[in-house]
Amino acid sequence: MKTSIALSVLSAALLAGGAYGADRGTSPQQLQIRYKLTVLDTLGGNATSGNSINDRGWIAGQASYEGEQITRAALWRGNGAPTDLGTLGGPNSAVLWPVKNVRGIITGIAQTDETDPLNERWSCFFFFPSATARGKRCMGFKWQNEVMTRLPPFPGGTHSFATGANNWGQVVGWAENAVQDSSCTSPQVLQFHAALWGPGKNQMHALLPLSGDRVSSATAINDRGQVVGISGACSNAVGGLSARHNVLWENGQPTNIGDFGGIAWNTPMMINQRGDVVGFANDSVDDGTGFDPRPFLWIKGRGIRRLDLLPNHAYGQALGINEWRQVVGQSCDAADVCRAVLWQNNVPTDLNQLLMPSAGVTLTSANDIDDLGRITGNARESVDKTVAFKATPFATTR
After folding, report:
1. What's the mean per-residue pLDDT of the chain?
2. What pLDDT does 112 receive?
């Protein structure tokens, strides 16, 4: 697309040390990239998260209302107030993964007003306020032209879950089918497979797990139709043993892209148009209950590699990547104090140290980055308030 090409050229100039905020006589070697921070408006509550940013500058995520035990999928266009994307009839909705298309499609999850016949927790339960998370059917959604539509489960299933969408209108996620799987952990009952909805209306395909596994889930898709996700056991339908293997599907066929030896909690989070994959892989080799993630970058032909953590930190996750192989995520110490991180050439930098001027908030997680280098994520404003942010790069003299 012409827009993407133009943005890429502009981004290249910036990353090379272009003349943003610099004198014409300043050499690239004298420039350094800093970030201007914008704290995004809330819906009135104390929990707001920026989870996705595309090349149009649209930021999507979730936000709570003051005094209400609900969370809503939210969209920021420009620096204005967020748009509440609504629900499918129930109380909660959210955008949880990077959605990289520039055609105005947003994807996520939303509750309906329909009773869950099996009273499962399903994957949505772990992302919604506990007081309102269970008891209703939860569906993946596609939001476009101000309208939210549901993405159905496979025949016989109750729930679905949507993550990302590409510029061809294909949406990925996972969805239940009619099989009562013995590898499920109660209250989960039904099996689920990675789902590919579209691009046509009512089109839906399953992406099957690796041989020997029972279930699969898709987390991201690029314009080449490459899909990443996980393969494993049914478990409780979120992480754990359902995420035994990191998987790349090409032409519908799954390939194991490797891990760090842990038997659970391995999850690719994003794939760029080149086919580079980032995510986290478990470093724990226990029975699968231990969550000890390490950030990774996978490049075809080079395999999976660890991304370094910040000094004296214990674990972390890579959550987003752009076409320039800039990677963002978080790095945490043994006391679970986390910082937003930008990796360039495998070198991690605390994003808080690149803000100019200092922000008055602490950036705890960088969740996505676009091709202009703009970053969104979470920041801690106070002990009980989390806000979403946009960090915009500019060049300054050293």
Report:
1. 91
2. 97
